[in-house]
Amino acid sequence: MYFLFITPALTFIAFLLLLLVSLSVPIIKSIYLFSLTTNVSSSLFNSAAYGAVKFGVWGYCISSVDISRVDQFTDLITKTTTAALVLHPIACGFTFLTLVISFFMLRRGSNGTARLPSIITLGIGILATLLTTIVFLIDVILVAVIRNRVNDRTDGRIVLNWGNAVWMALGATIALWLAMVGACGGVCARGRRFHTRKTEQY
């Protein structure tokens, strides 16, 4: 019985997280994959300058202080990486489809089970879960590789910080894997209960 409610709830959480990640910088400025910050100070004039660039799925946003060398770091993100980042909205779309179908798990069929919606949810959900896992791995690898390149090229003058979008993708991945366990439980438990009920009638 609990499996019926766990799957839609966890799928909704995963969809919401993936939607927010898909709408990251420059659309939602507080959600980003990583940020580059620099804090340059001069003892000669006792002055300091601070600047930051936040990178998201669709681009980047620069803080109010002008950073003239940002173009050097945008070419760190290749066309292949950009193509990989497009998987974010695709995973979000498949998760939404899984969410819609999972609501049919709450409605029982003529035989008293919701086995068919559970099977369809499981099938499409596994695809969404695998895509989301790939998206999370791409995010982690992307940020780690760019962090190493930035450290090598700037000798620590520019610092790369992990963004919250990476951890939101992790949350969506975990939620989807747990939802798929719930969908499996919905397929197995509902089928067993129906089989037991039929046996008792004879």
From TrEMBL:
Q: What is its main location?
A: membrane
Q: Does the keyword Transmembrane helix apply?
A: yes
| Ranges that cross the membrane | 85-106, 118-146, 166-189
Location relative to the cell: Membrane
User: Per UniProt, what is the membrane topology?
Assistant: Multi-pass membrane protein
Give the UniProt entry's GO cellular component terms. Answer: cell division site; growing cell tip; plasma membrane
Is the keyword Ligase in the record? no
Key words, A-Z: Membrane, Transmembrane, Transmembrane helix
| Cited InterPro entries | pH-response_reg_palI/RIM9, SUR7/Rim9-like_fungi
Going by the entry's taxonomy, the superkingdom of the source organism is recorded as Eukaryota
Full protein name: Pali-domain-containing protein
